[in-house]
């Protein structure tokens, strides 16, 4: 168990744990968790918050995130306002819906920018692959299947461009 004052309680394991095992660990360490919670003055369950900005170094984009005025109705939508601001409209009082809209925006940016970057690198180095897939992989930046499909994590957008290039070259080498 690890307790971060900003993020709260985190269960760290070298291998995935079954939910029942996590529950047991939490029960076994209730005293320690209570002590850490009191010590840092925070709850072990931290509510998600809306970021004020989003930086995507791989594609050299930085966005300020702005919420539409008023409660609004309907699904949360994102409008790129002038290329540097993301304006969220609709029911912006629903934080989870806003975060979900931002996740969809990041996925769309990944689908738009990462495959062409991979294609250019392949051409530059004379390497071949069959197709590209964009995913929200939890434990890998990328992977390459036996059939030549390169799966790229949309999280690559948050890395410096030279690291994204390195990951892509590594997968192309397979």
Write the layout of secondary structure elements.
Blueprint: E1 2-4, E2 8-10, H1 19-28, H2 30-40, E3 53-56, E4 61-67, E5 77-81, E6 85-89, H3 95-125, E7 131-135, E8 142-144, E9 149-153, H4 161-173
Parallel strand pairs: 4-6, 7-9
Antiparallel strand pairs: 1-2, 3-4, 5-6, 8-9
Please provide a written account of the structure.
The protein is an alpha/beta fold and 174 residues long. The model has no long low-confidence stretch (mean pLDDT 87). It is 37% helix and 23% strand. The strands form three sheets. Strands 3-4-6-5 form a four-stranded mixed beta sheet, covered by helices on one side. Strands 7-9-8 form a three-stranded mixed beta sheet, with helices on one face. It is built from four helices and nine strands; from the N terminus they run ββααββββαβββα.
List the defining traits of the structure above.
174 residues; alpha/beta; three-stranded mixed sheet; four-stranded mixed sheet; 23% strand
Characterize the main sheet.
Answer: 4 strands, mixed
Rounded mean pLDDT is 87
Number of helices: 4
Uncertain segments of ≥5 residues (pLDDT<50)?
none
The chain-level structural class is alpha/beta
How much strand content do the residues show?
15-25%
Total beta strand runs: 9
Q: What is the overall shape?
A: flat
Distance between the termini: 36 Å
What is the radius of gyration? 20 Å
The oligomerization state is single chain
How much helicity do the residues have? Answer: 25-40%
Describe the strand arrangement of the main beta sheet, using strand numbers: 3-4-6-5
Order of helices and strands: EEHHEEEEHEEEH
